[in-house]
Structure prediction request, 262 residues.
Amino acid sequence: MKVTAALVLAGSRPGAPDPVAVAEGVPHKALAIAGGETMLSRVVEALRGAGMTEIAVCASESAVVAAARDLGCRVIKPGPGPSASVAAGFAELGAPMLVTTADHALLEPAWVRDFIADTPADADVAVLLAHRDAVEKAAPGSRRTYLKLADGGWSGCNLFLLQTPRAQAAIATWSAVEADRKRPWRIAGRLGLGTLLRYALGRLTLAQAVARLGRRVGITAASVSARDGLAAVDVDKPGDLAAVRAILASRVTCSASARGST
Prediction:
């Protein structure tokens, strides 16, 4: 299926100021500079390079809204949480729709194209994850949060594909999970006893976990393994931004060396 619509989440979380924005002296971390341009600009350029012709940015901060419009993107008002923001984007863009975040500064067009190509045709929803081995090979020393399953540790890559209208059910469940974040027993109940037992015994693989969750919601859900471990690297802390800048600088150096040798 051809995918041409993408939603970039660039909302602001309530509460304490974002540490990256504070450290960089910008209104929102999406406007922090990496590789000579804002993270938001890098993400939008990568999406366009992957064939996305309709890109919407979910944002409320005035500076981010202005930057998104300067980049030729539609602006969508965010909801009170990530799921509500995705729901707002889905209502305007429809399926299929790719979802990513404005702090995915290393995003490459090839990652997006590969993710779409590797998503099963019958999946209503797909999520990209990177195996711990791939992440540590691509970004030694990078601190990521891993979901430990029978086939190893997996880290999210901030790339989701809502491939059919049935994906609306997944958004609704996501919203319910957000509402129950302080009541973990309710979240556990949504997974089902069998799934929880297999996880506790270390017998649940990533593919099984995602498929089971999909069936509980009433959709077909799929996990896709990232081909490049760097896909799991985003910017949550000032240290992450420093690491991203170093990777981008290394790319420039390698590119210059390659040109010099020809």
In short: The chain has a mean pLDDT of 89. The chain has one domain: 5-238. The beta strands are 5-9, 33-34, 37-38, 54-58, 74-76, 97-101, 125-131, 147-149, 152-162, 221-225.
